[in-house]
Amino acid sequence: MSELLSARVAGFLDLHHVMSLATVGPSGPHAVNLFYARDGLALVWVSEAGARHSLELEAERAVAATIAADTADFTAVRGVQMHGRARRVDDPAETVRLRGLLADRYTFLKRLDALPERLRDAVARVSLYRLDPDQVVLIDNARGFGHKETLVLQRS
After folding, report:
1. Fewest C-beta in 10 Å: which of 4, 42, 54, 134?
2. Which residues lie in coiled coils (predicted)?
3. What is the pLDDT of residues 29-77, one digit of tens each?
4. CA-CA-CA-CA torsion sign (139, 18, 151, 11)
5. Count of domains observed in the chain
6. pTM of the entire structure?
């Protein structure tokens, strides 16, 4: 069951591109929308190290994220909720590998030389982050109102 559910979650994540990441800090909870790529069921993204969500996850790694399709039909509500621990990726080899996943998903990252200088500079200064989920919930109202399937992941 968990392999099938993992595959369904991965398929859903591959169909969508924007996650809402929730962090918490001294000013209270905060949410931000970010492009992501998938590494297994982990999510990776780039952000400026000085952004509020980046600073908050340096102090408190526990985060939550959601990915959902936009719909006005309650029977079409589908989404993924997850919580786990996020961190900045500092290992150079891992950074190259994960940036490659992002570039495969967002092809404009493979054509940086064609971007305006301001955007090239922005891409050059961002840090890479990773969310390793402890729990993933797949929501699918097509299977019944509020239908949820939960995947609990074991961390080593």
Report:
1. 4
2. none
3. 999 999 999 999 999 999 999 999 999 999 999 999 999 988 898 888 8
4. positive
5. 1
6. 0.89
